[in-house]
């Protein structure tokens, strides 16, 4: 694994570059250590969420492709019967009417199936985003609480040193 940069040292070097007396500021900044584990956790959580969202999208795409393929096959089969030579011109009109009627019925069924897929994708996506939001909120609350406690301790230490 690659060695990670120590941001605490970098921040101290940056603060040390200012010509003013910033001892108190260095103490306060020292209370905010960069936690690489938090960045790694955030990356892992994001990757996990993306994997789940991709799974939802790919499942929907697969089901949509199945519906489209079946729809196309059914249409081709019906066209095969429609394209046969007829003895009476009125038979062509009847075949065309039958084909149009059957096609409209199948279209309604398939559109309903597509709508169900879309509804499922929407529901699963909302559930995933709500769970992710809850995790982020809990993590942020814990980080803010820790930072507040650390900053308070550093400020007391800086005040006591003067």
Structural write-up:
With 162 residues, this protein is mainly α. The chain is built from four helices and no strands. The mean pLDDT is 82. It starts with 6 loop residues before the first helix and ends with a helix.
Note the total helix count. Answer: 4
Uncertain regions spanning at least 5 consecutive residues: none
CA radius of gyration: 32 Å
Alpha-carbon distance between the two ends: 43 Å
- State the order of secondary-structure elements, H for helix, E for strand: HHHH
Quick description:
With 162 residues, this protein is mainly α.
List keywords for this structure.
mainly alpha, 85% helix, 4 helices, single chain, rod-shaped
Mind sketching the topology for me?
Layout: H1 7-16, H2 23-30, H3 36-82, H4 89-161
């Amino acid at each position: 694994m690659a060695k990670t940069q120590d941001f605490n040292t970098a921040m101290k070097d940056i603060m040390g570059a200012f010509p003013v007396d910033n001892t108190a500021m260095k103490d306060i900044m020292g209370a905010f250590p960069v936690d690489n584990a938090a960045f790694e956790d955030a990356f892992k959580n994001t990757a996990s969420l993306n994997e789940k969202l991709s799974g939802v999208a790919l499942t929907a795409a697969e089901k949509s492709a199945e519906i489209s393929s079946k729809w196309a096959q059914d249409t081709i089969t019906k066209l095969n019967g429609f394209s046969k030579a007829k003895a009476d011109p009125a038979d062509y009109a009847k075949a065309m009417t039958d084909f149009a009627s059957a096609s409209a019925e199948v279209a309604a069924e398939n559109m309903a199936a597509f709508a169900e897929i879309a509804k499922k994708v929407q529901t699963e996506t909302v559930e995933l985003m709500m769970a992710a939001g809850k995790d982020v909120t809990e993590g942020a609350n814990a980080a803010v609480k820790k930072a507040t406690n650390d900053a308070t301790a550093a400020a007391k230490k800086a005040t006591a040193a003067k």
